[in-house]
Task: structure prediction
Amino acid sequence: MTTAPYPQQYTSPIPVRRAHLGDALASEWTKIRSVRSTMWTLGVMILLMVGVGLLSIVAINATDSDLGPESVLSLGFNGVLLGSICVVTLGVLTISSEYGTGMIRTTLTACPSRGRVLAAKAIVFFLLTLVVTAVTAAVVAGMQTAMIDSGSAASAEEWVRATIGAGLFTAVLGLVALAMGALVRHSAGAITIMIGVMLLPLVAGMFMSSLPKVQEFVFQYSIPSLLIAFYSDTGLIEGGPHGWTPLWILSGVAAVALAGAFLATEKRDV
Amino acid sequence: MIEAVGLTKRYGAKTAVYNLSFQVRPGTVTGFLGPNGSGKSTTMRMILGLDRPTSGHVTIGGHPYRQLPNAPRQVGALLDAKAVHGGRSARSHLLSLAQLAGIPARRVDEVLGVVGLQDVARKRSSGFSLGMGQRLGIAAALLGDPQVLLFDEPVNGLDPEGILWVRNLMKALAAEGRTVFVSSHLMSEMALTAEHLIVIGRGQLMADMSVKDFISANSADFARVRTPQTEPAQREKLMGVLAEAGGQVMSEPDGALRVAGLPLPRISDLAHDADVRLWELSPHQASLEEAYMRLTQGAVDYRSTTDQRAGLMQQPDPMGYAPAQQVVVPEVPQQGWYAPPPPGQNPYAGAPQPGAQPQPPQQQQRPYQAPPAAAPPAPAAPPAPAAAPADLSKSEDAR
Result:
């Protein structure tokens, strides 16, 4: 301390260095791998993706179905959609469990820069879920390709979209959940909101035959519709976003949500 | 060095802390005292930049906490022993904090040794007892080897050995030239640990002085007088004489008398003149606990009342009671024990003479309303707590 007016003030023998984002990343990595909820949510996600993948293999081979022009990779959609619920749960828990336990006060005392803490959480969580989802999707797709003869051969781009693309989409969806967790600060509440946002519009859309415009919009832009675009050129219905557009749309949503979370975290009392 | 200037925090209509100004200096343990809900924790959170003051500011070494360079290396805090993720092991918890603050990982094992948690370092902290949680919290506070330390109720849940350890730890930390700021609602604990006291009640500063000054300013001396137990008449006689001479006499539960306002030689003379033998005449000084309770008695938010079971009890037979004879001092000193009001007016004095006028219990002078303050003529007037604004209270969950 340079401003010390008291000569007898204590100075620590441990060398002082300024902490930076890298330190926060290491800290968040320690946190995320030292709680069971991470193992549970990601473990259940892997089980769901692999399980649904194997079921689809059995179903296709048993019924001798023909996939027609679609490639085998399109079967991966169901597993990823189910797995994304686990990712959303983990995303919320990454931040809301700190509020729930009071750990956030300890964390923010150790690092008063709240933006740095939130950024580190987002980065660590994003990379972890991206890797786990993409690798699991690749393994499932490999199994399906090896064990199903039907359907057209998948191109390299289709492989990228079904693995890295799906992984990116899921991880960005997880970031939205993390931002929601930071805004709501309550695990059960934020998880419920996120699952509602993911699935309710599509379900509600099915009963909207009197409002065809709204129904069409919902079918084109609900989260499952955006995800299915990574597996089929047409999407759920014709005219929806295709190519990499769904990822950019969701990234925009995540950016807005994270910006809100940063502002709220910075302003609010802990 | 912690410096608060005009610190105020409102939660909606509730004012948790009002216009609080104080300094905490290095080299001593400073105790932060107040009843439950008086704003201690809120003040601590504002010092650490977790809560934003409504007005005023608080700095550590001249900087607000959130602008402090290398904050975790300068300030360590134990706010709440339960503020950990229970699913994480003690070591992982401390490691994540050390990494966040850029502290070498070997320091984690050092502090685990300091607080004696080495053997359970790999156990999940949800299984920890409150005492172990406190130790983990203290370890987190010590992690950065900081020069300013804040502890919120550090001895809660600790066993006697742990309390002694915390007490010595605080003193040792202060002796190294650190600023140590410890909150507690236990005056007796602070009397043994702290050198300086900051007392708040309902969010306002009530005292900021050394422990020594605090005792002499707030304590009242009294004499304990005991007459032969076999002769109650002598006791009655002495009480009358002493009261006549201007002393304030109260009866203790074991039959002794507490006399304030008369010097010991005068009591002896009066007894001699009245021809009363004394078995005991001893000087006493009120403890720090009593001084503290006197100071904060007007500022307690959550005061318990006697469980009257009104309407549930059988109407007592008025003849079954002997008329109450004198005020009996309760074991725990409460409202102005050294200045007893006439019997029957002091709501805390027990037995409101049911023999005189039999009344249904719920109409007796036991207060549901505010107790009539037994205006104590304090010998050395303490800094009287300013009349608190009407909205000055705080709910327990306000944060």
User: Anything to note?
Assistant: Confidence is low (pLDDT under 50) at residues 1-7 of chain A. Chain A has one domain: 23-267.
